[in-house]
UniProtKB/TrEMBL annotation:
All residue ranges annotated as the DEAD/DEAH-box helicase domain in the record: 47-169
Domain of life where this protein originates: Eukaryota
MF terms (GO), sorted A to Z: ATP binding; nucleic acid binding
A Pfam match: DEAD
Natural source organism: Steinernema glaseri
Lineage summary: Eukaryota, Metazoa, Ecdysozoa, Nematoda, Chromadorea
Name this polypeptide is given: DEAD domain-containing protein
Coiled coil start-end: none
Length: 208
């Protein structure tokens, strides 16, 4: 049975994750989940499959912890995805992973009231930037931001992510929050973005 380092109180979460890991096992999944658990910001570029699911597992685990915290502070987790289809697929996985738990998630298409009350928000760069930059939107409690499939994001999308992490109300990556960028190609622009706009970020590599 799958065991979470972050939470040992939800048999439903462990059972759901264990089932999905058995259906689609990839070598990258558990190492990436464990790396996100460390709590440090990092950049990860690898061509192997399974990275998005690993990120969703980590998001679900951390979301379960957050679901026991006061809801009036706003979301704790942002997951940035490149397209509407990617968000749809990620939400479908989360629906299965989080079945039977109290974790709330929403997407960039949901009502503002639902987004504010969510533990996790999935969205595209522009839509999340528009949401975060609203003066009344609570972002001071954000603890984890994951950018997935970063290799397909163009400079405009990167600019929106920059607006998010440089928002004065956004907790600075490092001691206050974790920023993770995941891609499938070794593109210099991803490394440049991560190091220029996010403090204390390392490039993590997984042995072949």
């Amino acid at each position: 049975m799958y065991r979470s380092q972050w939470d040992l109180t939800s048999p439903a979460l462990s059972r759901n994750i264990d089932l999905l890991l058995r259906i689609a096992p990839y070598s990258v999944q558990l190492p990436l989940i464990n790396k996100i658990r460390d709590g440090r910001s990092f950049l990860f570029m690898d061509r192997r499959h399974g990275k998005t699911f690993a990120a969703l597992v980590a998001v679900a685990e951390f979301g379960l912890q957050c679901s026991f915290m006061p809801q009036d502070r706003g979301p704790r987790i942002l997951m940035v995805l490149p397209t509407e289809d990617a968000i749809h697929d990620a939400a479908a996985y989360l629906r299965v992973i989080l079945a039977g738990t109290r974790v709330k998630y929403s997407t960039d298409k949901d009502r503002y009231q639902d987004q504010v009350r969510s533990d996790i928000i999935l969205g595209r760069p522009r839509e999340l930037a528009d949401l975060v930059l609203q003066s009344q939107f609570p972002i001071s409690a954000l603890e984890l931001c994951i950018v997935d499939a970063a290799e397909v994001l163009d400079s405009l999308a990167m600019g929106y992510i920059k607006e998010i992490v440089q928002c004065p109300r956004y907790p600075p990556p490092g001691d206050h929050s974790q920023f993770v960028m995941i891609g499938s190609e070794n593109l210099m622009r991803l490394e440049f973005f991560a190091h220029v706009y996010c403090e204390r970020i390392e490039e993590w590599k997984l042995p072949e």
